[in-house]
Design brief:
It is an enzyme of class 1 (oxidoreductase). The chain is of the alpha/beta class. It folds into four domains: about 160 residues, 3-Layer(aba) Sandwich (Rossmann fold), CATH 3.40.50; about 120 residues, Translation factors (Elongation Factor Tu (Ef-tu), domain 3, Beta Barrel); about 120 residues, NADPH-cytochrome p450 Reductase, Chain A, domain 3 (Up-down Bundle); about 150 residues, Nucleotide-binding domain of ferredoxin-NADP reductase (FNR) module (Rossmann fold). Strands 1, 2, 3, 4, 5, 6 and 7 form a seven-stranded mixed sheet that branches. Strands 14-11-18-9-10-15 form a six-stranded antiparallel sheet, covered by helices on one side. Strands 21-20-19-22-23 form a five-stranded parallel sheet, sandwiched between helices. α19 crosses α20. The longest helix has 30 residues. The N terminus is likely disordered.
């Protein structure tokens, strides 16, 4: 017999019974029947799944739906292409450059395609030699502390850990970096060298773009020489055709139902109405603004303390992480574009890729209105690049405007000078260009195709989850400045945040899309480890979180190490942010020392770097004798470099080392995560 759980129990009664009872037979039949149906149903499902046709959804952001198992080689072969341009991009610039190269390939009888390495099986690079006169180009950005971008991480690790035979692969690399950072173009340089080590042939020398100077100029100069090398390597000639072929075609969507129209969502339609965890770059969380208060005490500048409410979101952050904020363009600028181009901004449209094989069907979420595209999806405040000047030429009715655009689009010394002065130095955006060249009237759909995507803005989180688990704090300086043409340019994100003031009544609170980006900027694992923090201005932000976390540990009765903070601003009575908080931490013993530099409170300017030099003994005691950690946050262009030089000098003098030994010591500190920087330029 069986118990209630179906487990068979042997009988202890001795009786004359058949070896197989009726119940046994019934159970056997049931088991056989279930097994039969399970086996054949599974087989049928397997069979049908193998025969199931694949389709590409227009709104898909992923690659070609696995039809070719992420094989870009099959795609190249099936479409008669020989050029593939991969991009590793965090902000969209590398992707833009990749698209420009692929488009120009047609001038050299090389039909090209753009590919995201994250969506490709990069092991297929070994098969590139099977395609006649093939070429792989890599536009690769270096991000953070010398890291690959998120979408190039798998490819980078494949190169590091693999030993594929890439003989027969022809390649070229262009890197996107910033010289103010220590690991300038580190990833591009590694990829260029590693491909050669694996047997690939370098068709053209690596190009290194510097975003701190003029990365557009760097790219254009490299690209021109690239095509010269390509012609020489393959024995081909430029066709001379200078056609501006549209990548996307306009689709009228006036009949589309309102519920199928995007209204600012990053990826998924109605994602802000139906929020789904987890939240990330493609699926941000619509956070309420809980607090928005001014930190400056006086003066004409502004610095905001903002708290994002994440209660109920399941979002978790660590001290030192960043929060990404999705901004939107001002309605004033958006309306100005509509006015200048005499366009109906509320017309619903879509841009559909003319390359049916492309995995990227739309340049941004479509369908939407022009107003939505210009408000949420397109960057209308940055300086346009030279390829946009080139595309605008055909829309200029005034010969003078035409000539000016042609000059700026050219790669001649005169053209580069004009572009640098008129666009970069004078800080003109697309709105200013349309205002100052009044005969230029591009089709609005074409302009939407040309403009880059509006990117999220990253802020160092200025709170600890131990103290504030249900909110994320940031410290943001309002960006406003007057250009040489007497225009006032405004920071997109900070000016939006300045308007989002929570109310105390029953009205809906202001919201903004956010997500958390993990960081390597971390407190030491042991709370007893002494640390030095150097953060002038808003560079104080992550250290506010550090101090909160150590204060929390102290209140729990745990031993905490020395905490020394260097903070600087212009004037004590004007922009000494979080003054009361910091003084309280000094009073209760959490903050061991607070070194302050007010640059304009005395005749001679005084900065945190001056204080560091004065306190060389204290500095060496913590980082040298006690193996403490040192953190820097703020301006990369000058402050962080000056701090690094001072640290090396102190290590030399107090550690009694040569310059070479001191540099190695500091380098080892960085490798051990004892010297960390969270900087921007």
């Amino acid at each position: 017999m069986e118990n209630s759980e179906g487990v068979k129990i042997e009988s202890t009664v001795v009786t004359e019974e058949p070896l197989i009872s009726a119940l046994d037979i019934a159970l056997f039949v049931v088991i056989i029947t279930v097994a039969y149906f399970w086996y054949f149903k599974r087989d049928k499902q397997s069979s049908s799944s193998e025969k199931k046709p694949y389709t590409i959804q227009p709104s898909s952001l992923s690659s070609i739906e696995q039809t070719s198992n992420s094989s870009f080689i099959k795609k190249l072969k099936s479409t008669g292409r020989s050029l593939v341009v991969f991009y590793g991009s965090q902000t969209g610039t590398a992707e833009e450059f990749a698209g420009r190269i692929a488009k120009e390939g047609a001038r050299y009888k090389m039909k090209g395609m753009v590919a995201d390495p994250e969506e490709c099986d990069m092991a297929d690079l070994v098969e590139m030699k099977e395609i006649q006169k093939s070429l792989a180009i890599f536009c690769i950005a270096t991000y953070g502390e010398g890291d690959p971008t998120d979408n190039a991480m798998d490819f980078y690790e494949w190169l590091q850990n693999g030993d594929a035979d890439l003989e027969g692969l022809n390649y070229a690399v262009f890197g996107l970096g910033n010289k103010t950072y220590e690991h300038y173009n580190e990833i591009a340089i590694y990829i260029d060298q590693r491909l050669e080590e694996l047997g690939a042939t370098r068709v053209h020398e690596i190009g290194l773009g510097d975003d701190d100077a003029n990365i557009e100029d760097d790219f254009v100069s490299w690209k021109e020489k690239l095509w010269e090398s390509v012609c020489s390597h393959y024995g081909i000639e430029e066709t001379g055709e200078e056609s501006n072929i549209r990548q996307y075609k306009l689709v009228d969507c006036s009949e589309v139902l309102p519920e199928r129209i995007f209204s600012g969502e990053i990826s998924r339609l109605k994602s802000y109405e139906n929020q789904r965890f987890p939240f990330d770059v493609k699926n941000p969380y619509l956070s309420k603004i809980a607090v928005n208060r001014e930190l400056h005490k006086s003066g004409d500048r502004s610095c905001m303390h903002i708290e994002f409410d994440i209660d109920g979101s399941k979002m978790r952050y660590d001290t030192g992480d960043h929060v990404a904020v999705y901004p939107k363009n001002s309605s004033e600028l958006v309306d100005k574009i509509g006015e200048l181009l005499n366009a109906d901004l509320d017309a619903v449209f879509s841009l559909l890729n003319t390359d049916e094989e492309s995995s990227k069907k739309h340049p941004f979420p479509c369908p939407c209105t022009y107003r939505t595209a210009l408000t949420y999806y397109l960057d209308i405040t940055s300086n346009p690049r030279t390829h946009i000047m080139k595309e605008l030429i055909e829309y200029a009715s005034d010969p003078k405007d035409q000539e000016k655009l042609k000059l700026m689009a050219s790669s001649t010394p005169e053209g580069k000078k004009e572009f640098h002065e008129w666009i970069l130095r004078d800080n003109r955006n697309i709105v200013h260009i349309l205002e100052d060249l009044p005969s230029v009237k591009p089709d609005l759909d074409h302009l939407c195709e040309l403009l880059p995507r509006l990117q999220c803005r990253y802020y160092s989180i200025s709170s600890s989850p131990k103290v504030y688990p249900k909110s994320i704090h940031i410290t943001a300086a309002l960006v406003n400045y007057t250009t040489s043409t007497n225009r006032v340019n405004k920071g997109v994100a900070t000016n939006l945040l300045a308007q989002l003031i929570p109310t105390n009544d029953e009205l809906p609170q202001p919201t903004i899309p956010i997500y958390i980006r993990r960081s390597q900027f971390r407190l030491p694992p042991k709370s007893q480890t002494p640390i030095i923090m150097i953060g002038p201005g808003t560079g104080l932000a992550p250290f506010r979180g550090f101090i909160q976390e150590r204060d929390y540990a102290r209140k729990e009765g745990r031993e905490i190490g020395e905490m020394v903070l260097y903070f600087g601003c212009r004037k004590k009575d004007e922009d000494f942010i979080y003054e009361n908080e910091l003084q309280e931490y000094v009073a209760n013993g959490t903050l061991t020392k607070l070194h302050l530099a007010f640059s304009r409170d005395q005749p001679e300017k005084k900065y945190v770097t001056h204080l560091l030099e004065q306190n060389a003994d204290e500095l060496w005691n913590i980082i040298g004798e006690k193996s403490g950690h040192l953190y820097v946050c703020g301006d990369a262009r000058s402050m962080a470099k000056d701090v690094h030089s001072i640290i090396v000098k102190v290590v030399m003098e107090k550690g009694q080392m040569t310059n070479s030994q001191a540099l190695n010591y500091v380098k080892k500190m960085e490798q051990q995560k004892r010297y960390s920087a969270d900087v921007w330029s």
